[in-house]
Amino acid sequence: MAITIRIPTPLQKLTQSRSEVAASGKTVDDLIQDLERQFPGVKERLCDANGRLRRFVNVYVNDEDIRFLKQEATPVKDGDEVSIIPAIAGGQESRCPKR
To answer: CA 22 to CA 61: how far, in whole Å?
Structure first.
């Protein structure tokens, strides 16, 4: 079973600069395991010490946020597209002059 995984720019150094890779499995967790097998170091960037996705990592299966599905147990099938999207936070307060 081949599923397309979209890799965010910060992780592409671990996937030989590839923005998309193929992985196999029946769940999102299986995909993460397969990614780790192919590209060692990916899992520690995505998951905490308990193997759960880090809170700042968002994963979508066919544009559906897995947080509203079955999280890492979300099923996947051949032809699905999975996007890994790191959350962006922080920054400075706007310094625009008040009118």
So the answer is: 14
Residues 89, 85, 36: CA angle, nearest 5 degrees: 125
Give the 3-state secondary structure of residue 82. Answer: strand
Per-residue confidence (pLDDT) for residue 37, from 0 to 100: 97
Sorted by where each starts, the structural domains of the chain and their CATH numbers stand as 3-86 (3.10.20.30)
The answer to whether 61 and 76 have CB atoms below 8 angstroms apart is yes
Collapsing DSSP to helix, strand or coil, 14 comes out as helix
pLDDT in tens, the chain (99 residues): 589 999 999 999 999 999 999 999 999 999 999 999 999 999 999 999 999 999 999 999 999 999 999 999 999 999 999 999 998 765 565 555 555
Q: Is the dihedral angle over the CA atoms 7, 28, 65, 67 positive or is it negative?
A: negative
Specify the amino acid at residue 8: P
